[in-house]
Write a structure and sequence with these properties.
The structure is a single chain. The chain has about 200 residues and is α+β, with helices and mostly antiparallel strands. Helix content is about 25%, strand content about 40%. It has six helices and eleven strands. Strands 6-5-4-3-2-1-11-10-9-8-7 form an eleven-stranded antiparallel β-sheet. The longest helix is centred in the N-terminal third of the chain and has 18 residues. It is globular.
């Protein structure tokens, strides 16, 4: 029995590099994977490490991404907060309160950057960042270094990583604080959206 087990383990060790090796994706393949669905939802867990605090700040919730419409970021814990991002406006709603439009040109530019980020719009991202792509058997990483104001005044760098989906987003700001967001349970969403979800992207 022990001899058989030893032989089985040796066979697995010999075969694993061939059978279990992950495909190394090109940058174009990653872009196609991330942009193949018109609408998707996912869950997120966010952890922010702030200088001077012994414990990170944590938040969690879900998001809805609809290409051509925008991004709905719905934080559920530690308190409810909804953030709606489109090319034309940025608005937020705390709890069950009324949505308020954020009238700030710099934040609107930030909103457009986030849409390009989640929409895998490489051409738009290149206007804001220097892009550095790496890929290996463990997955891919895209590092973004801001090129111009206002983003270079706020962020030191951003990093996206994953496999067939976006798994992590790392944000390092100029103060040295780091925000790490883990994404999971990506699902395709059927269109058209129900009226209550369509309202998130209303002008």
């Amino acid at each position: 029995m022990r001899a058989w087990l030893r032989v089985s383990l040796l066979l697995l060790a010999a075969l694993s590099p061939v059978c279990l090796q992950a495909k190394v994706l090109s940058q174009d393949e990653v872009r196609q994977l991330l942009s193949q669905h018109q609408a998707q939802r996912a869950q997120f867990e966010q952890e922010k490490q702030v200088a001077g605090l012994s414990q990170p700040l944590r938040a969690s919730g879900d998001l809805l991404l609809v290409r051509g419409k925008g991004l709905w970021w719905h934080q559920q814990a530690p308190f409810e907060l909804g953030l709606s991002l489109t090319d034309q406006r940025m608005s937020q709603r705390v709890g069950q309160g009324r949505a308020e439009v954020i009238d700030n040109p710099q934040l609107l530019e930030f909103s457009k950057m986030l849409l390009a980020l989640f929409g895998s719009d490489e051409q738009a991202l290149a206007r804001y960042f220097e892009l550095a792509f790496q890929s290996g058997e463990q997955g891919w990483t895209l590092t973004l270094t801001p090129l111009a104001p206002p983003l270079d005044k706020v962020f030191a760098r951003l990093g996206l990583s994953g496999g067939e989906q976006l798994d992590r987003l790392l944000i390092v700001d100029k103060q040295g604080d780091e925000t790490l967001i883990h994404f999971s349970h990506w699902q395709t969403v059927n269109l058209p959206l129900p009226p209550e979800q369509e309202a998130h992207f209303a002008p």
